[in-house]
Amino acid sequence: MNLDVLGTLVTLSEREAEALRDVAAADAGRSTTRRDLSLLLARGLRAKTTVALSRAEARELAELLPTAGLGSNLALLREALLQALGDSPPWVMSRVSRRATGARDRENEAMIGGEPMPRIEGYRFGHLVVDGEEQTGDVIVLPERVLTNWWRADGHRLVLADLEDVIDELPERLIVGTGAYGQMSPDPETLDRLRQRGVEVEALPTDEAVRRYGELDPRRTAAALHLTC
């Protein structure tokens, strides 16, 4: 299972994830945040997916780690938590990034024409961080550039004309973020036309779309993200 610790990905074995889940569940009555953390870990184990932690959940998890034992991956998780919470010197993050994120970060750090590729670092309703810059308008993240303030004729409907400015730059996979509540609907004909061009499309609520983008190779993936409803 993967844990997204405020932008840093740490991979845990199933045994380690179960140990954390059990410790959190045993103490779930202590606070609402700890209960939510227990449920998140249980859901991540069942779905075998990435679990994104809020700052409060990261702090709770940092308190739980000593009681869960400290295997090698849990040690990396502790370093990531300390760095994310501002309690560890900067050199810790470089070690965590090299060892914990593995192949995923090596792909994400690939270069095109000597320039780093766009990186999505965080999302909340109406806000997205790309390459350290906060965006408050809809965006399209391409392997070689980011199109900001992405405008559609009908804000909650995606048609092929809405992608006209980037259609020739789309790689083999496009992740569509349909909004926090999934209100933006891709037109079925548009999806068919994109597939005819060799572009596979996944449409997900935007928080899930951001996580999915992070699991894929950014050299072969684009993301068109609606940031509000």
Write a structural description.
With 229 residues, this protein is of the alpha/beta class. It is built from eight helices and 15 strands. Strand 1 and strand 2 form a beta hairpin. Helix 2 packs across helix 3, helix 3 packs across helix 4 and helix 4 crosses helix 5. The longest helix has 16 residues.
Lay out the secondary structure.
Layout: E1 2-5, E2 8-11, H1 14-26, H2 32-47, E3 50-53, H3 55-64, H4 72-84, H5 90-100, H6 102-108, E4 111-112, E5 115-116, E6 120-124, E7 127-130, E8 133-135, E9 139-141, E10 146-147, E11 157-158, E12 173-177, E13 185-186, H7 188-196, E14 200-204, H8 206-215, E15 221-225
Parallel strand pairs: 1-3, 11-13, 12-14, 12-15
Antiparallel strand pairs: 1-2, 4-5, 6-7, 7-8, 9-10, 9-15
Helix pairs in contact: 1-2, 2-3, 3-4, 4-5
